Amino acid sequence: LFYIIIFTTHLAIFFFIRGKTGKWWQMVLFILLSSSISNILDTYALVIDPLYLLVFSYVIDKSLPLAYHVFYSFYTTIIVELSFRIVAYTVLSAILRVSISHINASQWLVAICYLSAMPCYLFIHYLLHIDYEAIRLANGRSKALYYANGIMIVFFIFVNGSTFLESHIAYLPYSVTRMRYLSIFVYALLFLWSLYQFNSKAIASVES
């Protein structure tokens, strides 16, 4: 149930961003397969959520260029994780008066954070006035999409690579862990600012 909640959230945001839905059996198959694989890989602290979405995106629409599949999959994953951290680090920890480590240690509290990721994302979406249709049209005329994909892939490798090391190195220096969290926080701010700029330029490009 825990992984089903996580990947249902991923799928809901993925379709919202993509602007189209898939067939019901494709969605069910994606959730079941992704949940089963993640249940195994989490034992080794390996997280490859965007790769599941990448394959899924390609399977349901082979006509799209690869760059779009990469964008939809990695962007969705980063949005979900960013929303999760906003809820966990600022909202739930303040309401329950518990530490982040306590939240991360409880599957039910983590599940609540993932369930709250969609409302949190919708708040960000409407706050920044994101127009995905304009972004799709504008990106057909520029290379901005490729730069965005490269940045998201590098960040994903950094975050999950550091998580993997943190899980397998018993005495990782505190300064390294602190630098990791600081880097994620700085990236989150830059990501939101870049998204706002990206969206504004896309709208201006389409209107012109």
Put the structure in a nutshell.
The chain has 208 residues and is an all-alpha fold. It has helices at residues 2-18, 24-41, 49-60, 66-96, 100-105, 107-115, 117-128, 132-139, 144-168, 174-207.
Highlighted features:
208 residues; mainly alpha; 10 helices; 83% helix
Describe the protein in words.
- The protein is mainly α and 208 residues long.
- It is built from 10 helices and no strands.
- Helix 1 packs across helix 2, helix 3 crosses helix 4 and helix 4 (66-96) crosses helix 9 (144-168).
- The longest helix has 34 residues, at 174-207.
- The mean pLDDT is 81.
Shape: globular
Rounded Rg:
17 Å
- How far apart lie the N and C ends? 47 Å
What is the H/E string? HHHHHHHHHH
Percentage of helical residues?
over 70%
Count up the helices.
10
Quick one: biggest sheet? none
Residue-averaged pLDDT: 81
Percent of residues in beta strands?
under 5%
Strand-helix topology:
Elements: H1 2-18, H2 24-41, H3 49-60, H4 66-96, H5 100-105, H6 107-115, H7 117-128, H8 132-139, H9 144-168, H10 174-207
Helix pairs in contact: 1-2, 1-4, 1-6, 2-3, 3-4, 4-6, 4-7, 4-9, 8-10, 9-10
